[in-house]
Known about the structure:
The chain is mostly beta strands and 180 residues long. The protein contains no helices and 16 strands. The protein has strands at 8-12, 17-22, 29-30, 33-37, 41-44, 52-59, 62-67, 75-80, 85-90, 96-104, 107-114, 119-124, 130-134, 145-147, 159-166, 172-177.
Amino acid sequence: xxxxxxxxxxxxxxxxxxxxxxxxxxxxxxxxxxxxxxxxxxxxxxxxxxxxxxxxxxxxxxxxxxxxxxxxxxxxxxxxxxxxxxxxxxxxxxxxxxxxxxxxxxxxxxxxxxxxxxxxxxxxxxxxxxxxxxxxxxxxxxxxxxxxxxxxxxxxxxxxxxxxxxxxxxxxxxxxxxxx
Length: 180
């Protein structure tokens, strides 16, 4: 599971628990994530290498994962490490692929690609409830372009920056409030 090309990141769940997960920049990799607890050893959180995706963040004792375990077009699962309870908070969308997911503060920032190759940017709370939704057209740009990943990751980040670019629009950096 730990090949010479794999890299692992560590997220703290408190004083004596960590989530160790495979990550290789923004590359899509077979999902591999483990709970490591002092005195209790290592426990796999997902079947190693069976699904694709990435751990996107931790809030309290809950780990959020973008995964193909939900469906081929990806979704988000939340795993509570205290209760060992997992639930799907974002199901697959029938005509969209979840291409990127980030956790910034207490928000999930989700980037979808629809059947017409249009990008959609959604901001949700940690329960998966949509708070805001943007298309490039909503922001004054042509529809077929790309959003960069958003800046920010701490619980105090209330504003993020991102860049939009397309064949018809020069790269433009924008600011987005993550407040309701």
